[in-house]
Amino acid sequence: MNDHRIPLTQADYQAINASLSEIKCRLSDAGDLLAAMHIDHALQCLDPENPLNPQAAAQA
């Protein structure tokens, strides 16, 4: 692994968030609630206001 990190742009975060939200809805509609729950957790980790976000936790 490379220790050099390239942060995501706000547009990247928005695109990822939109994609994950769509996938979560489709999984929920299909009845795959465990997978939808994992996607929901990923969305929480991407939220800059959520303490689960590693970058937000590092700044606190």
Q: Would you summarize the structure shown here?
A:
The chain is mainly alpha-helical and 60 residues long. The protein is built from 3 helices and no strands.
Tell me what you see in this structure.
This protein is mainly α and 60 residues long. It has one domain. 68% of the residues lie in helices and 0% in strands. The chain contains three helices and no strands. α1 packs antiparallel against α2. The longest helix is centred in the middle third of the chain and has 21 residues. It is elongated and about 40 Å long. The two termini are 26 Å apart. The model has no long low-confidence stretch (mean pLDDT 86).
What keywords describe this structure?
mainly alpha, elongated, 60 residues, 3 helices
Instruction: Summarize the main sheet.
Output: none
Question: Terminal Cα separation, in Å?
Answer: 26 Å
**Quaternary structure:** single chain
Care to count the β-strands? Answer: 0
- In helices, the fraction of residues equals 55-70%
Unreliable spans: none
Compute the number of helices.
3
Task: Note the beta-strand portion.
Answer: under 5%
H and E order: HHH
Structural class by SSE content: mainly alpha
Integer tally of domains: 1
- Report mean pLDDT, rounded to a whole number: 86
Q: Which value, in Å, is the CA radius of gyration?
A: 13 Å
Shape: elongated
